[in-house]
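Risk register update: the risk that structure generation would not scale has been downgraded. Supporting records follow, first protein first.
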Amino acid sequence: GFAVSGWHLFGQKVEAYGTLWQACMTNFDFMLGNFKFDDVKMAHEGGAYGFFVLFMMVIYVIFFNILLCIMLSGYQSAKSKLSKLGGGHRIVDDLSYLAQILNPCAMLVYNKFPAPALIAKRVAAMPPTGTLSVADIETLFAVDTLIANMFIIAVQRTIRFEEQLMQDESFTAAAPADAADEAAEPVVINNYYTNPEAPASPGGDYSAADKAALAALMKQSGESRADAEAELKALKAYVGASTESTKAHAAQELASLKNETKEHTAAEIAALKELLAGSSETQKQHAARELAALKEYVGASSEGQKEHAAQELAELKELMAGTSADAKAHAAQEFEKQMSALKSEVAGHHEALISSRTNEVVSLQEQMNEIKVLMANLTNSVGQGLMKLNGNIDQCKDDIAQVYNASDGAASEMKVGIAAVAAKQEAATASMKSECAGMLKTVQSAIDQQEIGTRLMKQELKNIEEETVASMQAQQVQLHRDMSDSMAKQQMVLRQDISKWSNSVVKQQHVVTELMKAQQKELHQDMMGALAKQQQALHQDLTEELAHQQEEVAKSMVEQQEYMHEQFTEHAAKQHEDVSLSIKNQETMAKSITDRLDYIQWVKDGEVPQASN
């Protein structure tokens, strides 16, 4: 918009606004402070002032403020998202945290992994029973995702701090710890197998899950509450018995595995301690013997050198009494140089022995730390395997629940069929009643027609009524008897048919009931067989899994023993090299002492002035 306005206002007189592209670039240069206002002012003074005042208001005041607001809102969002980690309050705090993570010399960082104390400090806003998720760990290691993945894979464990609890998202939270100092060393606990029972709901004999199951049974089967409760208790008893047997077997297997692992680990640690104690005592004795021998040798050599030097000095004084002062000074300087060199070599050799001994102690401590880390990883791997076993048990429980749901569906279908039979029976009864009512209506209509005919005959045969009245009465009586007999017979037949139909319906009901009982019995047998097969398969899977875990534990212990043997072999080779080096140093020192004695003898012979010249 400003490019088009400038092109229209100043394009005819100012070359910088001659085209739209030039006008756009000129406005951009003006925004950066690289533009001469005189040409535009001469071209159109009023338009120039208005144009550039609006330009400055829009660009500098509105656009830059919008950018500033965007930046501030973004930083505010980052602060709110990092608030759970205890950071984001100031830029300096975030930079300080990054420096702590990246600084290899920091006390709270080990191998670029934030220490537990640093993690606890960063998640101070979390509640004591909060859960440290994988996303939180990736946030803590945001500078290096590879380190984050390695941390999540290698250090999946539950850590209880003195002030709060942090835990991997795959496991349940333990009880909160007592409040204490943040800098205290965290305690590692293995609560992978914690599976607390759900508390019973107050105010009733059933928990929420039992109430839901009871309502589902009553709704699906249409049974009374007492029947549903009895069925639920039977199911719970059966499942509880199977679950208790499975739990007991798993607990026995787990206890045996723990005992074997503890015994094997204790034996390995005892052997390692004995080996380390023996090696350390041997090294100490060897170092003490070497140091004593060196001191004796150095003391003897220094005493002999002192006596010999005193004798040589006396002889030199006697022999060189008539020599020049320069020769005496040169001899004294050479003697002092030799003595200082000898003292420095002895001191250096002593310091080398002390430093080598310190390095050996440090290396042994590092080996012990590595052994502790290996044992922790072994414990974590066993915990993960047992977690898998718990998952398989839960899956078996789900399968059992599905089987029971299928049985409930079949029972509901059978009840629907029974209800349909009753409806058919009611329909047949209603049809029979309607037929009987129709027949009664027919008879009544016949009687009505007969009465009408009788009245007509009376009207037509009124003259011969007296002659035929007797015969007519007799006919009427006979007709009435016949009609009564026929009606009684028809009613008897209908009653017999109705009773037959009722008996057939009752028989059908009994047959359906027997069929339902047989189906329920078969379904129960099938369910029992399926549950037995599932228990057998679960037992076999548990046995195989425990055997596999025992093999893995044995392999890991063998690998640890081989690794320790290699480390001890390397350490022994290093000690042998150090001893060889010390022997070479002693030989070099003896050679230097011999050379110095030769030099003293050479000075005694009086050849120093010629050598110095």
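Supporting record for the second protein:
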Amino acid sequence: MAKTEEPVVDIDRYINRLKKFLQNQYLIKEPKRLESICFASHDRQGNTLGWAIMGQEIVLRHDNYLDVDEYGRRVSDNLAKITTFSYHFQPEQSSGLREWRIDFKDCDLHVNPDGGDNEHLDPDQVPLDIDNFNLYLTLILTILYTSKRIYPFEPEAEAVYQSSLNKGRRQISGAS
């Protein structure tokens, strides 16, 4: 397995985008405040130093849901690294959608296309660029998958999803 760098985000942009996404009642069946699913530590000025989202379920439209674990820490004035994550998409049984999971731990990034531990695909074995992944990009991918219904790890997925993921990366990195 190839080692991957920890994902880096502009912490303020990332948190603000997550807050907006999680409150969007058109995308999220049970909108949540980020603060209700995330434990964060702050310095005296109120700046986020680190965060943990542990075993939280985000219920999407049509009763599909995303099981989320994510841990991150500030590394500079405006940048944070996501040190560990697991994003597990679990579709409603009659939806016809397939389950999947993206995991990152100890610089090992892989996809479990069936959602379980049976098969691990390295980043170079999937059509999407999953390097530097995070919860915001996972939410984008999940919402697109539930509407376009093209499995994210099939060859044709790159043409369908990659430009939206790239746009999401720019939104949380500060790049235009």
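Residues 8-173 form one domain. On this basis the risk owner (M.S.) recommends closing the item.
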